[in-house]
Automatic annotation (TrEMBL):
This is Succinate dehydrogenase cytochrome b556 subunit. Heme binds at H70. NCBIfam families: succ_dehyd_cytB. Its main location: membrane.
Length: 112
C-alpha cells in the first residue's frame, strides 16, 4: 500500500480531490457575494474594497491555481479513461501542475 502512495499519479489524484473539495467549499461564498450585487449594492461595494488587500490577492492566486489544477487533473483523468495506458502519464500529471502554476501565476502577476 505504501508503494502506491509514493507514486506521482497518487499525488495527482489527491491534489485533484483536495482542489475539488476546496472549490466546493468556496462556491457558497461566491454565490453569496453574487447575491449582494442583486440585493445590496452598497454592501457589495464595501466587500469589494477587500479585494485590494495583498492577502486577498494571494487568496485569488490560490483560487485560480485550484481551478487550473482541477481542470488539468480532470483532463488527465479523461485521458486515463479514454486513451491507452502509457508510462509517460506521470509526466503529463507533472505538466498539468506546471500548467496550473503558469495560469495562476500569470493571473497573480496581472492582479498585483
Amino acid at each position: 500500500m505504501k508503494v502506491a502512495r509514493a507514486h506521482p499519479l497518487w499525488l495527482a489524484y489527491i491534489l485533484h480531490r483536495v482542489s475539488g473539495i476546496a472549490l466546493a467549499l468556496f462556491l457558497p461564498l461566491h454565490f453569496w457575494v453574487l447575491s449582494l450585487a442583486l440585493t445590496d449594492a452598497a454592501r457589495l461595494d464595501s466587500f469589494l474594497t477587500l479585494t485590494e488587500m495583498p492577502l486577498v490577492k494571494l487568496a485569488e492566486f490560490g483560487l485560480v491555481f485550484l481551478l487550473a489544477v482541477h481542470l488539468f487533473g480532470g483532463l488527465r483523468l479523461l485521458a486515463m479513461e479514454w486513451l491507452p495506458w502509457t508510462a509517460p502519464q506521470k509526466t503529463w500529471a507533472a505538466a498539468a501542475v506546471a500548467g496550473s502554476l503558469f495560469v495562476s501565476g500569470t493571473f497573480f502577476l496581472q492582479a498585483i
